[in-house]
Amino acid sequence: MLNKIYIRIAEPEDAAILTQLAVATFVETFAADNTKEDMDKYVLTEMNQGKIATELADSTNTFYLASFDGNPAGFAKVRATETPAELAGNLPLEIERLYVLQQYQSHKIGAALMTKCISHAIENRFNMVWLGVWEHNQKAINFYKRWGFEFFGSHIFRLGNDEQIDMLMKKVL
Question: Which of 64, 99, 104, 144 is catalytic?
Answer without folding.
Answer: 144
